[in-house]
Amino acid sequence: MDRRFRTRLDEVRRDAQVPPGLLRGLQSRLEAFLRPFVVSLGRDETRENAGQYVRGLLSNLGAKTAEAIAYLHDRDRQGLQKFVGQSGWDHRPLIAELARQVGRELGEPGGVLVFDPSAFAKKGASSVGVARQWCGRLGKVENCQVGVYLAYVSGTEHALVDARLYLPKEWTRSRKRMLKAGVPSGTRFRTRHALILDLLTEHGPALPHAWIAGDDELGRCSWFREELRGRGESYLLAVPSNTAVRDRAAAPPPYRGHGRRPQVPFARADRWAAGLPAGAWEAVDVRPGEKGPLVVQVARGVVQARTEGRPSDADEVLVVVRERQPDGTWKHDYLLSNAPPETPVAEFARVLKAEHRVVDGIFDKLLKTDDTQAATRTKLLLALSQALGKHALQEEDVVYPHLRLAGIEAEAKELQAEHGDVKTYLHELEELPKDDAKWLDRVRDFHKLIQHHVKEEENEIYPRFKARLSNEDNIKLTKRMHLEGLKLA
Fold first, then answer.
1. Are residues 168 and 279 in the same domain?
2. How many helices (H) and strands (E) does the chain have?
3. 333 with 345: CB under 8 angstroms?
4. Is 226 a member of any domain?
5. Which domain holds residue 290?
6. Model pTM?
7. Do residues 210 and 171 make contact, with C-beta atoms less than 8 angstroms apart?
8. What does the pLDDT look like over 12-57, one tens digit per residue?
9. Residues with Cβ < 8 Å from 471, sequence gap 6 or more?
10. Which CATH number does the domain housing residue 365 bear?
11. Closest by CA position to 199, among listed 116, 88, 121
12. What whole-number distance in Å separates Cα of residue 218 and Cα of residue 212?
C-alpha cells in the first residue's frame, strides 16, 4: 500500500474514534433525526428498511453490506438488498427536508447561496457522466466527473444543501450508455448553469437569503446573470480581470456633429481599476486577524459589461476588492453585481468572503466552547480534521510539486513541514481530554499556526510562484488554487 495513502488512512481511522460520552442517548437521537426524512418514503416497510440500514452503517460491522446489516437485525437479506439496490423510492423529498432544516436552523435574511461547479478525476468510461473535460482539481482537461453544489452560508454557520451531477452531451446522446449506467429514461442535456438554476428553483424558497455568490464560471455567463435578474435575485459573481466594461460615469468622447454620438469605449476591468483615484477605494475590516483586523479595500462603479462577446442589456455594479501584499503589490478580485449602486461596500466584502468561512468558522466555534462541552469539541475537531486533511492532500499532490519545479524548493519544504505540525496538533487535540483546561490553549496555538501558514502561502510564496509562470499556466493554476484551495483570507 502506498505510504502516503497508509498515513492518510491511519489519520482517518483516528478521526473516526469517538468517546463513549458522545454515544449516550444515541438511539433516541437517531430515531428523532430519521423521523422527518423517512416519513416521505410512504410504506411502513420502506421506512423500517431505511432506519435499519442507517443503524447498520453506524454499527461496528466490519463490512457494512446490505446482507451484513440484514443479519445484524436478524432478518432476511433480500428485502434490505432490494431497498438499497432496486426499490424505486425518490430521494428528492429527503433532500428537500434537509433544505428545510438548514433554512429553519441556520437561516437569516442576509444569508448567501453559494454555487460551485467542481470536478473529480475518474478513470474509465462507465461511471455516470465521466468524460474528458476541465478538471479544476487537476488544473487541466482530464477524464473526470463534474457536479454543481449548493451551500448555504449565514453569519455564523454554513452547510452543504444539495448537488447535481453534470452529464455531457456525449452521454445524453447515447441511450444505450445511459441505460447501462442506470440513468433515468428521458434525461436530457442540461448545462451546468441550468443545473444551478434548477437547484435555486427547488431550494431557494426554503433558504432565507439576500445574495447569490459564485466563481467566474458563473459570472462570465451573460444569460445566467440575466436569468438571476429576471428572478429578482441579487448576485455577486466573480469575473475574469480582462472582462470588458463601459464606465457609465465617464464622459463620452466629444460629438463631431454627424453620425451616431460616440459612447465611452469598453476597457478591461483591471485597467478600469488601475485608473481609479485613491479616494475611490474604501477600507473594510473583513475579520479579526493575528495582528489586528484584516483590512481590504473596495471600489465600485456602475458599468455595462460585455461578456461572451455581447454587451449586457442592463447596467451592473463592478466591484473590485484588493488586498495589500507584503511586497507592496495588490491582489485583486473582480465581481459583477446587480445590487443597487448605493449598497455598502462592506456588504459586498461580506458576500465575497462567504465561500471562505469553512475552516475559520470551525475554529471560531471551537474557541467559544467551554470545558463542559466535550462532545461538541469532539464533533468540531472531527470536522476540522476532515477539512484540513483535504486541503493538505491537494497542496501536497498539486501545488508543492509545482513550487519545486519553479525553483521555490526551500519554501515548499518548509510549508510541507508545517503540514506535519498540523497533523501533530490534530493528534494532540484528539488525545488530550476534551474537558482539560489546557485544551483550548492548544486550539488557540493551532489556529495561529494555520493563519500563519495560509498568510505565508497566499501573500508571499504564491505571488512569487505565479510571477515565474507563463501567462497561460498562471491563469490555469490561479483558477485551480482559487477553486480548490483552502481560503481563509
1. no
2. 20, 13
3. no
4. no
5. 236-250+265-351
6. 0.69
7. no
8. 677 677 776 777 777 788 888 899 998 888 888 888 998 899 888 8
9. none
10. 1.20.120.520
11. 116
12. 10
